[in-house]
Specification:
82% of the residues lie in helices and 0% in strands. It has 2 helices and no strands. It has helices at 3-13, 22-60. The chain has 61 residues and is mainly alpha-helical.
């Protein structure tokens, strides 16, 4: 087997230098993490904020 063909096959099989698609995956994971944190924060603070708005509304009326 020609060494050039072997080198080409190894480079194609285990190409570690090409990371062009990694940034899109990282942005997607970061966006998903931010969305999960926002949903948890809204669920945790939702009733508290609703209670405050209700108390302000009743005091204005």
């Amino acid at each position: 087997m020609d060494l050039f063909i072997l080198k080409t096959w190894i480079d194609a099989k285990f190409n570690t230098g090409d990371e062009t698609g990694a940034s899109m995956v990282e942005y997607g994971l970061l966006l998903a993490l931010i969305a999960v944190i926002a949903i948890v924060a809204v669920k945790a603070l939702g009733t508290s904020v609703s209670t405050k708005f209700s108390s302000v509304n009743s005091s204005l009326n």
